[in-house]
Amino acid sequence: MAEPCVTTCCRCYSLRTGSLISGIMGIVLSIISIIVIFTTRVEFKTILMDWLPQNVVKIIFVLNLCMTILISLLMILGVLKKNHYLMMPWVILGFMLVIGLLISVIYTAVMYFIDGFVLGGSLWLAIGLISVVIYAYMWAVVYSCFIEQKNENERGQYSKQPYRR
């Protein structure tokens, strides 16, 4: 059986509570992002397909955010129902998003530095890396909850803890 990465969330909350907080924050931040996308005149760019029109880029971002909301709802339901299968999409997506966020932060900071905006690049890098660390930690909390739930489901909810040396 796999072992959880962490045993508590922030040393004072259970993994279940931390997972619920992660899911709720994912939903809230996605909704805020959707509102920002439709109410501001910020130009959004993609790293690989920078030739796409702005409306298409916004639609792609909104669809991704809607999927994040759906997967976060599934994860919350999985935590509440003690069903690790419902948590699995969030665990997989979360791992990919940590990597994607790290790449995005580094790429954007480098672009700021290349364009001569040293302060902007430095701030982007500092705040971005803090965000990556927080997101990675919250992923570790949900992953640990997922592992605990999976182990519990595999050995049976009412059986004794396995003997360990």
TrEMBL record:
User: Which keywords accompany this UniProt record?
Assistant: Membrane, Transmembrane, Transmembrane helix
Transmembrane as a keyword of this entry, yes or no, is: yes
Membrane-spanning intervals of the chain: 20-39, 59-80, 92-114, 126-146
The answer to whether the entry has keyword Transmembrane is yes
Name the InterPro entries on file: MARVEL_domain_protein_3
UniProt name for this protein: Putative abc-2 family transporter protein
* Source organism of this protein record: Aedes albopictus
